[in-house]
């Protein structure tokens, strides 16, 4: 349920993800520098995510990996989604 909620929220704010039900959610950013900057900004806001860039993923598939847990509350998820929305540009 949390994974579906977060995945939908990511799409609703205009970011790209891959369909699925797995709790590890890829947010495709497709730019190495943007991934690095977003990961750092999210960390400063108390959100721990993993940036995947070349050579881990092919150029053009740069991704932020988010791991959702059953212990995350809707408030946690909404906070994270709002921060993604703030920094996506």
From TrEMBL:
Cofactor(s) required, per the database record: pyridoxal 5'-phosphate
Name used for this protein in its record: Aminotransferase class I/classII large domain-containing protein
Keyword Transferase appears in the UniProt entry: yes
UniProt keywords, alphabetically: Transferase
InterPro entries to which the protein is assigned, alphabetical: Aminotransferase_I/II_large, AON_synthase_class-II, PyrdxlP-dep_Trfase, PyrdxlP-dep_Trfase_small
Matches recorded under SUPFAM superfamilies: PLP-dependent transferases
Native species: marine sediment metagenome
Record domain Aminotransferase class I/classII large: where: 2-83
GO molecular function terms attached to this record: pyridoxal phosphate binding; transferase activity
């Amino acid at each position: 349920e949390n994974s579906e909620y977060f995945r939908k929220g990511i799409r609703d704010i205009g970011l790209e993800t891959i369909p699925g039900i797995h709790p590890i959610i890829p947010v495709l950013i497709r730019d190495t520098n943007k991934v690095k900057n977003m990961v750092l900004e999210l960390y400063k806001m108390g959100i721990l995510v993993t940036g995947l860039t070349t050579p881990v993923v092919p150029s053009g598939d740069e991704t932020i990996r988010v791991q959702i847990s059953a212990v995350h509350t809707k408030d946690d998820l909404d906070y994270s989604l709002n921060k993604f929305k703030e920094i996506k540009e």
